[in-house]
Amino acid sequence: MSNISVDEIESMRKSVTIVPMKTTTTYLTMHTPQRRAFVHLTSQVQEAVRKSGVQEGICLVNAMHITASVYINDDESGLLRDYDVWLEKLAPHEPVAQYRHNGAEDNADAHMKRQLMGREVVCAVTKGKLDFGPWEQIFYGEFDGRRKKRVLIKIIGE
Amino acid sequence: MSNISVDEIESMRKSVTIVPMKTTTTYLTMHTPQRRAFVHLTSQVQEAVRKSGVQEGICLVNAMHITASVYINDDESGLLRDYDVWLEKLAPHEPVAQYRHNGAEDNADAHMKRQLMGREVVCAVTKGKLDFGPWEQIFYGEFDGRRKKRVLIKIIGE
Amino acid sequence: MSNISVDEIESMRKSVTIVPMKTTTTYLTMHTPQRRAFVHLTSQVQEAVRKSGVQEGICLVNAMHITASVYINDDESGLLRDYDVWLEKLAPHEPVAQYRHNGAEDNADAHMKRQLMGREVVCAVTKGKLDFGPWEQIFYGEFDGRRKKRVLIKIIGE
After folding, report:
1. Which of C12, C21, C124 sits opposite A12 (nearest CB)?
2. What is the pTM of this model?
3. Which DSSP state fits B103?
4. Cβ C57–A156 below 8 Å, yes or no?
5. DSSP-assigned letter for residue A65
6. Element containing residue A14 per DSSP (H, E)
7. Per-residue pLDDT tens over the stretch A104-128
8. What is the pLDDT of residue B19?
9. Could you tell me which chain B residue has the CA closest to the CA of A90?
């Protein structure tokens, strides 16, 4: 017969209420008509967090292509224009022949722009929401568009 | 009556010793008197890790403002000065009129400097401590200070 | 005697099948004969993911030294050459006296190149594998080599 004690049952009762870890994976599809573009993603990421049911954890958002970025900064049209000019200055598209990567392709500069803006962001999830400062917004930065690309959202927590 | 077997009790005894996932959230307040400054954060982050009780996991540290960075590099005054000069070269503050974002504000360059240095770091926690190489130190990089900002530390693990 | 009910046993039976969180830590050693070099790491990281047994989670890969990067981009020799030229343009090694950090050392530029390419990548693990787009490859970027350095792989998930 069972030799389980009352205390042990109490202890197990408490232990088994452990909230299990949750993970969810979401893919977004991007397709910008221009070579370079910025797409605001915050609401789509927040929606993925809500659907995941995760209350406390972290949320990874990354470009799945190597000529695009996911980054966090301001949703302000002047700044987006400034970023575009600045990135073109630090990693110019022309002349395309300056890059060995170019030949069949002409997108070497996009591989550099993506490094400057980063591949991914990792965000805290607190009380079921993106734990953001007042101006933080998630953006997709496209540097070689006019074709389909994907963004991955991975949420892990409890 | 209960139909639990001795084997099952043994199995449950083992299972319920699962260490549950832990998460903790800590906010630091920054307020630098200068427009640009570097603040060493390693000991505050290490203290948050210790308090969390997490032995194995990861630790996210991010600026909650979009004109500031959290990054990992050397705690050496010459290098901090070099970073300041270098960032000013790649994303100059003056002339402020070169940026469309400026007008009511004059901090467009700070939004660029922050992208170069990054928003966040993700650190491994191993045996209850930041799992760092010999020279790794966490810094807050302020590029538009003279006001209150926050840094978030999220720790997730077991 | 035990006052556990049949329903409670059923409920506990279900609860205790919770898959526990797993974490694993792996260290790679790097030693490039050149000052600057790129080393392809994808297969070693994928192997660490396989060994961890994690099916769903995230994988942090970071340089443990502050003159090296871990980043994700293309495995294409022309691009690697372009990155080298471009990084040298944005953060030139010579003249070494332009940097205050230099003196006993001559690697200030390496601390800047590392910031441009980043310290770490955080990757999603889905169905037991790195959840990557078609061209994503993990690289170690060395900017002050000719000595032993380490890369850390931390995997967390279930």
Report:
1. C12
2. 0.91
3. S
4. yes
5. S
6. helix A6-15
7. 899 999 999 999 999 999 999 999 9
8. 60
9. B90
